[in-house]
Structure formats: C-alpha cells, structure tokens
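Sequence and structure are no longer studied apart. As an example, we show below a sequence and the tokens encoding its fold:
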Amino acid sequence: MCEHHGEPTDIQPEAEPPGRTSSGRRLSRRGLLAGAGAGLGLALVGAPRLAQAASTLSLNGAWCDPARGSFPNGGHFGAPRGNAKHAGQDISNPVGTALYAAAAGTVIRRGVGVLPGRTGNGIVIDHGGGTYTYYGHLNSFSVSQGAKVVAGRPIGTMGATGNVTGPHLHFETHTGGLGAVVDPVPFMSARGVDLRGGWCRLNPGASGQRVRAVQSLMNQRGAGLVVDGAYGKVSSDAVKAFQKSKGLVADGQVGPLTWPVLVYTLRQGAKGDHVKGLQVVLNKRGAGLVVDGEFGGVSTTAVRTFQGANRLVVDGEAGPLTWQALVA
C-alpha cells in the first residue's frame, strides 16, 4: 500500500524531539537517515531489542489498537521497498476511518513528511522511555502539535495522502529512541493488542478504562467490585470464578475467550452496571458520556458515531463486534 519515492524529507528543527538512543546519546540526522534506501530512513531493529523493551516497560493494559482494518498484501514489516524494507504495518480501511493514540504520550510531530522518507500527513507520539509511534497517510488531524493524549484518544482519520496505492494507516513502533523501528505486530501483541482487530488481552495487574469496564460487567453479575480501574487480586479472583463457571481456563486473563461471554448485547433502554461498562469504554474513545448506567438517546448516538467511524454496522446496538472494537 505504501510507495516511498525520492530523497528523504528534512525534519523541521522546531519539531525535533529529545530522541536519544538507549545509551542516552542524542540521535543525529545522519543516524536517522542511515539505511534510507527508498526513503524509509530508519534502521530495522530485531527481536532482542523488542524483547528487552517488553520486559522493561510496565504496560499491561496501557496500549490499544490504533485503527480497525485489514492487513494488505505487501504491507507488513520488513517487506521489500526498493533498496530498503517496509518500516511499519499497514492497516487498510476507507478514507475517514477513525485513528486512535496507541498509548498515552505527547504529539511531538504533526504535519507533512514528519519523518525522513515518509510522505503525506503524519503524526509522531512520544510515549516516554525512548518509545514512539508513527501514524502515516492521514486524511485529517484531530490533535495539535504538543497535545497530551491518552490511549484510545482520537487523533485523526485514515487517508491516502502521500505516495500510496490506496487508503490505509502506516503504523510504526520505535524503541530505544526515535529512529529504531521494530515490528509493530509482536510489539503490540506483547502489550495485549491484536492489530488485526481481535479482542484485547488484560492480565492481572492491568489498569485503566477497560479494567473499569470488566469490573462493571462483573458487577452486573453480582460481583460487588469497586470500579477503580485496578485489576488486582479481588477483581482477578472474581474473573477466575466467572471463567470457571463458563468452563474456561480460570487464569484471570480477560482475552479472546473470556470477552465474548462477559459482554452483553445492549441497546437503547437498557439499564445497569453493564451499561456503565459500555459508557466507560465509549469515553475511552472520546465520547464524553455521563456514566450513569442508562442507555438513552445520547449513549445510542455515541454508539452509532463510533460504529460509523470504525466501519461497523451502524445500528446503535452494542453487540460483540462493537464491544470488540471498543476494548481493542
């Protein structure tokens, strides 16, 4: 889907991030351009650094899917690109599909050609600890330069700007400093996210809005949990008991086997803790709802808006596919 041509584009000085290597040495522009080849401009980093990053960062539940869509042929990490290799993972869907911040951080670059060799509209988010994400070929932006974002916040829409053969998100993950890319698929998988759009995985110790949704869904079943977003022993024990009652492995992981039997199909008129869980994850995606447990007209509109932005059937009903996209 991506076609990179011509010489790498310059980075504007005012957009330059701290960008240091894992040893603390500042990355030079020459270092960024090393191995540019057909405009990729970044060195591909193998599994050892990825494993190190996953082992040293506490990220359970802190990452989410940046976009819904399919993996196009030839759009995978490491695919040949002239004299270089593809530095990210492409995710295809129509122009206008919603894009989200993959984790909390700061928007340090926003504009056209924000990384060497990248064409079209792009965003770079600094997540701290030498970890960055890049989002390319955007149709529109919904965050400004310097904005602080949380995981799941809308940042723009999918597009076909720059040298492309069709609309898609070009998504990159960088560890050890901006300029060292790793394969986004295993990187995100290690953080509980399936870039193909499957159910996320939350392990004991996780925190955040999705944990609040799990706690609310369990409370609908009488668990009596404190909805604090911390997936500690009391919450994980309740989930384990639920899993056992459903004939699942009682490991406390809320993943692809547990989510489908945990969520409810909800529509306008529903009331209860399960609706609170739905409102919480809608808010994670920017809905701004009052979490009151009442599925009224405002919540229905929020569901329909989310469904439309993510190319789901727009019926206002929160069924398994909508839940899957919300908690991804």
